Amino acid sequence: MIHEIQRSLTAIIMGGVLERFPKLKIVSAENDVGWIPHYMFRLDHAYEKFGAMMGSVLRMKPSDYIRRQMWATFQDDPVGPAAYRLFGPSNYMWASDFPHTDSTWPHSRKVVERDFAEVPEEVTRKIVFENAASLYQIG
Predict the structure, then answer these.
(1) What is the DSSP string of 44-96?
(2) Domains of the chain and CATH, by start
(3) Whole-prediction pTM
């Protein structure tokens, strides 16, 4: 599943879609997030090596488009809270996945406390609440 997401996202970024539509927002849900920082590194690396052979020219590094226009959710993923250091704290969103069977409910608060133990409080607040409220314009 992650490979299909990466292929589609690569086509969108390298094809200049996010360049042409800077207000377009992409949400990667129910895939966890540990793969994103490494994917961003590999995408930048490939663009540096082969970008001159592409049909469209990007004004930013591919990872900058991801930081600007992509949000991602995770729930019971201890890698997720730590990955903000590479992806940035403004685009990750913790999810309980309620009412699905994979949900952290009814222990969601304990999961957040455990997984975010090493994350600064202001970053935890962004990932657990503020980013989703901002993205979906919830007052």
Answers:
(1) HHHHHHHGGGSSS--SS-HHHHHHHHEEEEESS-THHHHHHHHH-TTSEEE--
(2) 2-135 (3.20.20.140)
(3) 0.88
